Structures are given as structure tokens and as C-alpha cells.
Amino acid sequence: MFRQFFMRFYILLAVSCFLFGCKMPRNEAALKTTPTVKSIAVTATQAPTQGSVTSTPTLISESVDVIEPTEEASHYPVFLISFDGAPANLAYDMMQSGELPHFSSLSEKGVLAEYALSVNPSLTSPAQNSISSGSLPAKTGIVGNKFHNPNDSFFWYRSGFSEVMDSSEPIWVTASRAGLSTASIFFPGASPEYPGQMADYTIGYGIRDAYSRQETLPIVPAQGWENTPVSFSPALEADYQIPEIARLYLLVTDSTDDGVRNYDRVGISTSRRITASSLQLTVGAWGSLVVLESIYSGADFLIQEITPEHVTIYHTGIYHNTASPRQLLEELNNNFGYFRPGADSYALEHGWITEDDYLYLLNQSATWMAQVSSWVFSTYKPDLLFTWQDAFDAAGHTFYLVDPRQSGYSEELAGLYQSYYKQAGMIADQALEIYLADVNIENATVILVSDHGMTPVHTNVYVNTLLEQAGLLKLDERNYVVVDQSQALAFTSGGAVHIYINLAGREKDGIVPPEQYLDIQNQIVDLFSNLIDPDSGDHVFQQVFTQDDLATIGLDHHNSGDIFAQANLGYNLDDWRGKDQVFSQSEIYGQHGYDPNQIDMWAIFIAAGRGVER
Description:
Blueprint: E1 5-6, H1 7-20, H2 28-32, H3 60-63, E2 78-83, H4 88-96, H5 101-108, E3 110-112, E4 116-117, H6 124-133, H7 137-140, E5 146-147, E6 158-159, H8 171-177, E7 182-185, E8 201-203, E9 207-210, E10 213-218, E11 220-221, E12 236-242, E13 246-253, E14 265-269, E15 279-281, E16 286-292, E17 297-306, E18 310-315, E19 318-320, E20 323-324, H9 326-336, H10 345-349, H11 355-380, E21 384-389, H12 391-399, H13 411-436, E22 445-449, E23 455-456, E24 459-462, H14 463-469, E25 488-493, E26 496-501, H15 517-529, E27 541-546, E28 563-567, E29 571-574, E30 583-585, E31 590-591, E32 605-609
Parallel strand pairs: 1-4, 2-21, 2-22, 7-8, 7-21, 24-29
Antiparallel strand pairs: 3-32, 5-6, 8-20, 9-19, 10-18, 11-12, 12-13, 13-14, 14-15, 16-17, 17-18, 22-32, 23-31, 24-30, 25-26, 26-28, 27-28
């Protein structure tokens, strides 16, 4: 077992070597050194040691030559699967207990790293872009799941999932330029919306046309329906407008010939006609329906209650696929239907669905993504395929209830939630079986990775309230930022926060004179460094960096802001504005974005197949 695996560099180095036919050099220090969990910065070629590493990180583009593939090498594909948020400690425990048999089987055929060390911050968007490019966030510019760019209005933030890299490129672009065939399926950073970052065959994360909803609809006597099923009570109807998308029609019928009004079925259609594509659902049953044929947009529907007066219905977010080239999109729609977005945490939080429903949707998404990826691999036969899914991550945020300080904790509920988490892991394992169904492990290389781990959280920290109470941020009655009276603003992602100073000459309508910059920066550093949890007496923040210090953690980019800070484990940072208090109990259970050297943030790495020595 490798002692550790520096994710961004070695994953790209491994992929490059397997793909192009070169030999992967061994870094004995990285393979053998026992890590220490301290506040440190890690370069690509150094094992962690206590203290800070200040040397410039080695980039993949500076250390591995992109060579023309040999004809022999081009016939041996590389298949990388990123299981978002799979923690090394939990995933490997499940493997040892036999709950992830396909993960275990693959590791027995190849190699298993004790852990992979994520980038800083240990968040999905920065880490996945670093996995695909081999570059630190300082080069990709993807410094968080959420961040501010000084070219935008001061109150505006960008999503790391909707941005292209600055000074790097994904390996599938490099490989395509070298004459290899490539595919990126659902992988962050690849979408037809980003032409410069596409693989030859690209399927992006689906595009949402409408949010999920739960509605209780009044029903009235049905009129004007065609091709209706037999009903032993007078049929009833309702209609439902999905804003800017479609109007749906519901036909409520009684299929029980018992002389009693027992309405037990709901037909759902895009017109007052029941067709082969219409749904016929009973209470508790799920069904899939395309609601907008022009773009093949659809959702999963659940009937939750039927009475003679109303029907309660839930539907997932309505999504359509995005893919390139056009032929791939058409075949994707014809063969697999609309995009399945997965678990709906918002619906669970608001009581629209149950935990079993949540896991059902998670399984639907994981299975669908695996089937699509396997189909692309076997149909288009790319030399390189990157794909992604989030069963571990979704379950970790929702079910990681292990700490008595967490909201609603009891031993009974913690045990139940542990079983839900394990079900999600088994969903990922079943998806892996689908991924590997058409892979000849003797002639292909399979790499399993994750981008970060997961840790339980118990307390929310509202960082903009902290700035507001210090007089650094001004909000109006709607809690909008008053830019011409605000000196600083924070944007958070999990356990990480970027704080931006409203500097004159850099920010639009900036108000902080350059001569006051250092004073305000130091004030913010002191504010965050000395923040104490009033309940425990513990420091909230593990480390606080000024912009000048960010090179030590590979985060020196203008998107990173003027101060970057990371909380200690257990604290979830929230940038919601207008809260009266800095602290509250967290309603989510798992989080990431913390110092990647923390054991809870360690990720997985498993590789097997051609070129991998057992």
C-alpha cells in the first residue's frame, strides 16, 4: 500500500504514463514518509513535514513531456472515475468490512494508496480541476466552489463549477492534441459551454430548467380526456403549471371495483390524453417523464397522497442533457433519456421527501451516470475517459451524524444515519460494477480517485455577520451589500472562506484607499484568528492567510482574495448575510474544504490494470 499519494500531481502523472506509454517515476519520499497532520503547504514532490513548505510547487506541464503516443500505447485506454467526497478512512473501512466488494476486487488486482492528499482548499471544484490538469488552484484560478473576481461588482461571486481554467488545461485537451481519442463524462470543468476545455466526446453535468417542487393540487371532475383507463369512480383531474416549461395534466382514477370511492391512481401527461409516454402512478410510486420534448427535458415524479379533494405530488429538478458532438447528444437522449440530477437535499430538508426517497434518487443518478459512461467507453472507444459521480459526497453532507454536538443527535438516529451512509457507499459500489462491465482489465488501466474527504460539523459560523459587527460590512434593509459603505465581504465554501477588501482602484466603486489596505487586512486577520466559540471556548479558525502568504499553499491567485481562512474541524462557514448572531447549530452533518492535511480530508486512490504492478 502506498503511504500517500499527492493527488493533483501523481494522478495526472499516472494517467499520462499509462496513456502515452511512458514509465511513471517513483518518489520514494512520497511513498514511504509517514505524514504529519499540521498546518503546512505541500508541493507535488515533497512529503508533508511539520512547518511550511515555501518552494514553488512543480506543475505537471513542467515535469512531464507530452509525447506523441506510440501505436501500441494508443490501443490501451485509461478510465478514471472520481467518486466525489469519498473519504479514505470511511471508504477503506467499508472495503475491509465487505460492503464495497467491487472497490476491494479492483484494489486486489492493483494498488491502493493509504490516502491521496487533496489541494487546498479541499473542495470539489478546485480539486477536480487540479485532478484533470495537474495544476494547483493558483494556476487553474478555480480557488473555491464560490469566489469573487475583482472584474465583477464587489457583491458578485462566481461558481467554481461554471468557470474555465486560467493558465492550465485538462489532460483530455492535451491528449486530443497529441492525436488520442478522449471523453469527459460529467467531469467538472468539461462542458459544451466551455469549447476550449472539451474532450472529443463531452457530456456535461445536466442543465436545470426548473427547480424541484412539492405541490398539493385541488382536483375537480375530469372533462375532455381521451384514451383514459377504466375508473370505478368518476374520474377527477388537476393541472399543474411548471413555470416557463410546461403545463401538466393529472387524471385521478379508481382501479378498485369494490363499490367504494378509492382513488388510487394518477395519470400524468403533457396533454389531456393518456399515451404510452404518460405516467400511471400509485401512492409511493416513482415515474420518469419528459415534459419538454424540444430539448428532451424531464424529471422523476412521485405521488405522495391521493384524496377525493386533492393530490400531493413531488418532482425532481427538471433537467436536459448537454453533450458534444451533436450526434452524441442525440444518441444520449434516445438511449438514456434526460439527465438525472440525483439526491435532492433541499427537498429532504424541507420535508418533501423521506430519506428512502433521497437514496432512491441517489441510486437513480449513480446508476444512470455509470450506464452512460460505460456506453461511451464501449461505443466510442476513447483512449482516455474521465467521469464523476457524487454518491459519497451527497450522503456525507446529509447523513454524517456522529457527534453529540450535532443537531438532533441521538445514538439511535446516528445508527440509522450510518446505515443510510453505507447504503450510499453500496450504491457507488454497484455503479462501479456497471462502469467496469465492459472493461478488459488486462488491456486497460482503471483509476479510482476522490477529490477530498468529509468531516462531521456541528456549528455554523456566519462570517459576514462577523464583518458586519466589526463595522466592515454595511447591509440595507433587504440585506443587500451597500457597496459604497462596505470595506470587506466574505464568500465561503464549506470550511474555507475568502475575504475581499473593497480596494479603490481594483474593485469597481472601491472605497478603501491603498494607504488603509494593510490596516484593514490586519484587522480582519485579527478578527478571524481570535474568534472563539462561546460554547466550547475553542478557536474557530485553524489558519488565516494574507494574500502574500497564499503561495505557500498553492492559492496565490487574484480570485483568492485578500485574506483566506480555514476553520477547525466541526465548524461550517456560512456567508449568509443579515444574521443576528455569528453562531448557530449546523443543520447539515458533513462538510469539507478544510486543511487537506487533516485526516478527515484524505481522499482515495486505487489503480489496476495495464501498467499497474500489484
